[in-house]
TrEMBL record:
Listed InterPro entries: Integrase_cat-core
Protein name: Transposase
Native organism taxonomy: Bacteria, Bacillati, Bacillota, Bacilli, Bacillales
Source species of the chain: Paenibacillus agricola
Residue ranges occupied by any Integrase catalytic domain in the UniProt entry: 2-41
Length: 41
């Protein structure tokens, strides 16, 4: 998470940080391609 999310953004406020990290977690868990399950999201 540090390399893929924190390293790509410069956060200025806590609400901004919360929104970006929440979106990253949602995308990571639901949208990205999962290699361990034959490329399904």
């Amino acid at each position: 998470m540090e390399a893929e999310c924190y390293g790509r953004h410069e956060f200025e406020t806590y609400p901004q940080t919360y929104e970006i990290v929440t979106q990253f977690i949602q995308d990571y868990n639901q949208q990205r391609i999962h290699g361990s399950i034959s490329g399904r999201t």
